[in-house]
Amino acid sequence: MPSIIVVIALGNGGAANLITTIIGIAYYVYFEGGPTGQTIGKKALGIRVYDFRGGGGPIGYGRAFVRYLVRIVSAIPIFLGYFWMLWDKEKQCWHDKAAGDVVVPVDAYPVS
To answer: Are 65 and 97 in contact (CB under 8 A)?
Structure first.
């Protein structure tokens, strides 16, 4: 939805693409790196991003940014990085491994 508003305001060009990319990065980094580790969609599904390296809790904004960038890499080879969780023993995708996180159900790992 924000991308439609930006395109209407600025037209379909380089500036609009840059602004919508920045909005997307800010959205994922803010919500996944924040205290709950949940975007709006994750909250609706009852899941959250959880620190796998440091013993639990939020991953922080720096690691959320790394997670966002590697998510793009995960999609390049026919979404192999996303399917990786199907045979990984920790059930992690490539972007989870890069950021040292795991996606877990909220009822098992409640938000404090």
So the answer is: no
